[in-house]
Amino acid sequence: MRRTFTGSHLNDVVRLDNHYPYTITNVHHGERVLSLNLCPNYPFVTDIRRIYISESRSCDQLKKQVIDELRIRNKSPCDVFLSFLDDNGTWNGINDAYSKLSLFASNIHDNDYIAAHFRYVQQPLSIDSQAVLSFRLCRNTRLKHSFIDMYIRATVTLSYLKAIAIDKLNIYTKPNETVTLLLNKDNNDLWIAFDSKVEDCTLEELEFRNNSYICVDIKSITYLPGVRGLRNTGNTCFMNSALQCLSNVPQLTEYFLTSTDISHTRIACVYSELIKALWSEGSLSLALDTFTLVIQADLPRFDNYKQHDAQEFMNYLINILHTELASQSTIITDLFYGKIRSTVHCLTCKSNESTTEVVSFLPLPLTNRKKKQRLFEINHVKLNGDRQSCIIETDSNGTVSTLLHSFIDYCINENQDDNDIPDLESLIVAKMNGNDVKSQYSLDESLKSVVDNQISVFEVPLMISKHDRMYTPCLFLDNDSHCYFRPPIYLVTPKSNCYGQDVAYQIQKIIKHIVSVTGERPTDVFWTSYSSNYQRHLVSSMNENLYSLKSIIIETSHLCAKAYTSKSKQSSASNTSISQELTLSNLMDDFLKEADLDGQYYCSKCKLQTAAKQKSELCSPLPPIIIIQLKRFTYDIYSSDKIDTFIDYPVNNFDLGQYEKDAIYDLISVINHMGTLSSGHYLTYSKNHRTQKWYSFNDEVIREIKDNDEGQLITKNAYVLVYMRQKPQLEEQLISFT
């Protein structure tokens, strides 16, 4: 999220000069200052240092600031490459082709997590090597006589080649521009264009030839109707996400595009103007200045620039639109309003009392069927690096040790080989952030303090006495993208006098596992030290003391990393036990099933405080649009926590036939939430009914979700789901609309 510092906020920024070596005294009025989280212990998000820099500064200037902050000697910006932590908790490299661009143009956001890596001098590529291709880079397809010679390995990806070509030509691209690489193989007039669908393919896979001509074609993006960004004016991502979500409800958008009798309203009028702007063609994102002012005047709870709940805002907006339209039946009631009947059964006199409530959304708690039991999704990382997932049910009032005993019992029941059953002392329990370890849990830690239901269990060998050993992470690096492609493995090493040969046997087992999965050996193995930022080859340190050992890094080619990731996804997809337990249908059943009432119920018939049961049911007819909130936030008197449990939900053909005949729904929007309630970020995935394509709306940044990939639409960050009913009359409405 970004925050604009103006007025009094600007003074707050200037006062930071007393605490940080980088003064922000040249910030012009209204210019945005970014607060970035520098992680010196990459890939771990620990010992964070805050860096403040204007978004108009370049990536090179940010690198200089990072070098000074880390006090690294004899390094210049060209020796450094940066990476950032994305929405899914994965580190991604920032392309050096954008080093001269501003941080704004490079899509660096306020409060992003960044890390620095230092280049090592490599020998020049041998032109005679079969692994190296020679290209003739042209500025224009018509000027093939003027070119720049390029030499690059055949194993790099197309996206990497594009970035190098842009850098060689000194071209600066803008956020609203796309770059296409053109190839001329046979020195004729035929140029082949490669689109973004093959950006992750290597030049070898695309059959690029030696001595071919290449060129880059840059075009501005003209956004389609309904595919325009909304600017974040300071923690307004919750509002942007909710508005993009409602904008992609076809019937609602049709109404506000064509309605002419709402001039007497306030919020409905400005909402209509916003919808008309979103659904007109243009290449720029929109500002919500007028809309925000009206909202803040009519809804004072949103009259600040603090983070708010996107679902709460969307519900407020829907209800106030209904109120302003001043009719008993409005487009809002026709689309969103449904009814829930609640029946209470008195266990004393056996009488029933029913009430019916009008609702505009379904709030589904993320709780389990047994109050005293809790489900955990365990990602089990074995000694050799193999991974398996399973669902473990354990006592919710227990400790991490209780969970591990339940896990070991599961392993005993599932495995016939005693060698596959782990020992309690050989297990480490951790919370992951993508492929990085965020924190470790102690055995005596209460499960009530473990908010996330997805945790990782690492096996470690019992080779050294408990008091003399320490655990060192073994990381897996893609040498092309400089990103880690799988979670780490923990090696057991001596606390002191650790030599290369002490970890050699464990490394050999891991390499054997990688070869068995990919058929390819890693390219190198390094070790890093807390006392130095340099990497050293492990093979040359077999008889050396690995002083202050920090980590072991196994480096692979991009093809090897890609093959390993692909096999891991296939293995994960074949594990159906997880999706059978944690699905949207399960949550619906739990929400509507009969349950004991908490506390005593006063029965109006027998006039007693008595025990009772309550059951809810959806009333017919079901609304055309169903909004479902996955209640991920838990509140108590001391704090608020977030439940990151993955819930599997259907994209198409969500069958609610058990509540009403022929009630089949399709997903049209997902609001995702990353982070915590107080310092998180919202983005929306929505389906454009005109193009029938899915798009990611991240404030002003819009990305098409290629091939409507369901794997990208279903994530553990899903917070609000919007479903539209399949119905012939709805299809007729869409046809008339388009």
From TrEMBL:
Matches recorded under InterPro entries: Papain-like_cys_pep_sf, Peptidase_C19_UCH, Ub_carboxyl-term_hydrolase, USP, USP_CS
Keyword set includes NAD: no
Keywords, alphabetical: Hydrolase, Protease, Thiol protease, Ubl conjugation pathway
Top enzyme class: hydrolase
Molecular function terms from GO: cysteine-type deubiquitinase activity
TM helices/strands, residue ranges: none
Single GO biological process annotation from the record: proteolysis
EC number: 3.4.19.12
Span of domain USP: 228-726
Keyword Hydrolase: yes
Substrates-to-products reaction catalysed: Thiol-dependent hydrolysis of ester, thioester, amide, peptide and isopeptide bonds formed by the C-terminal Gly of ubiquitin (a 76-residue protein attached to proteins as an intracellular targeting signal)
Stated family: Belongs to the peptidase C19 family.
Protein name: Ubiquitin carboxyl-terminal hydrolase
